[in-house]
Amino acid sequence: MEAIASHLPQIWLFLIAFFLLYYVATDGSDLGIGILSLLAADDKERGLLMQTIGSVWHGHQTWLVLLGGMLFGAFPVFYAVLLSSLYIPMMCMLLGLALRGVAFEFRARSGKKGIWSLCFGVGSLIAAGAQGFALGGLLGGLDIRSGQFTGNVWGWLDSFSIMVTAGVIAGYTMLGANYLIMKTAGRIQEKSYRYARAAAMTTLIVTIFVHLLIVFRYPVALEKWAGLSLLSGLFGLLCLFVFSFVMYFTSLSRRKERAPFIWNVLLIIFSFSVLSISLYPNMIPNLAPQALTVQAAAASSSTLGFMLVTMAVLLPVILAYTTMTYRIFRGKIESPCEESDACRAPLSSQAAKRSA
Predict the structure, then answer these.
(1) Contact present, 199 and 175 (Cβ < 8 Å)
(2) What is the pTM of this model?
(3) What range does the domain containing 105 cover?
């Protein structure tokens, strides 16, 4: 038990990373579809885009709530510093998510659906941008002294966070486009292939710049990359990241339907893993000695142990419910066949040609 107790902070760090990645892959797709709805040809097309996530978007936001609760219980110091320093982006994110949720409910009952379709897209863009600024502010380093934030309320707003925000918006757009490839056919699907490719190029460029800036900005990251060997786990993850991008573009070129989304999720996992290992053990990077480490931010062993037992019971239930939801609402949405000549063929024959 003592051996497990000493590693409880790392175990909870892994669990929180899992919840974060799951949220990004699922609700990130929803936000990406919302952003793409702003580029839709008309309100009818926006309605079809909203229909693709109409049955699952509620559940995706649940992961964000769980993530906040776990951070509060497992890493209270990190939670306090994060909210204190990134209060404005966090509030904007909540406002964006609320606007998106209201748009879903009101559009279904409104005689003028156009305004609520626009609110869906704008709310998604606000939420995605706010998450980008929060991530940029965190990676840019927060002014921490004695476990408390002592910086400026606008400290998160700089050129680095703007670049990170552009990458987050492009990444969510990439996820949304790949999800639409799976859920639609005809003209919308063809447009999604183009959006997926363009967003991926933007995401790749921003990701490379962000990783390079992180490496040269923080000594802990520079030390790890300077001592990089061909047999290290960090080098292996980097190779997997490059391989996934190659396979991602290959799957788009071959007009696969499921493979682009799968490779997209793997890209997120590998990129996040490389970044996390580069900065570990710092939870909030900053120039030493002000950086907040995992051990310093963690709650007591008794708290972490109690939460771990509770999570061992709840997590399988959550995953089973989520799996059942996706299974029930699997398949493509129905769209008018006059949208594209491609719709004239049965969807089953299209799926056979483009199956992953």
Answers:
(1) no
(2) 0.90
(3) 28-186+311-351
- Domain for residue 239, yes or no? no
Answer yes or no: is 139 within a domain.
yes
204 domain residue, yes or no? no
Q: Burial of 287 by CB count in 10 Å (0-12 exposed, 13-18 middle, 19+ buried)?
A: exposed
> Among 48, 44, 24, which residue's Cα sits nearest to residue 134?
24
pLDDT tens per residue across span 105-156: 898 888 888 899 999 999 999 999 999 999 999 999 888 877 778 888 898 9
What is the three-state SS of 267-326? HHHHHHHHHHHHHCCEEECCCCCCCEEHHHHCCCHHHHHHHHHHHHHHHHHHHHHHHHHH
Flag whether 269 is in a domain: no
* Residue range 70-85, pLDDT digits in tens: 999 999 999 998 988 9
Number of domains in the chain: 1
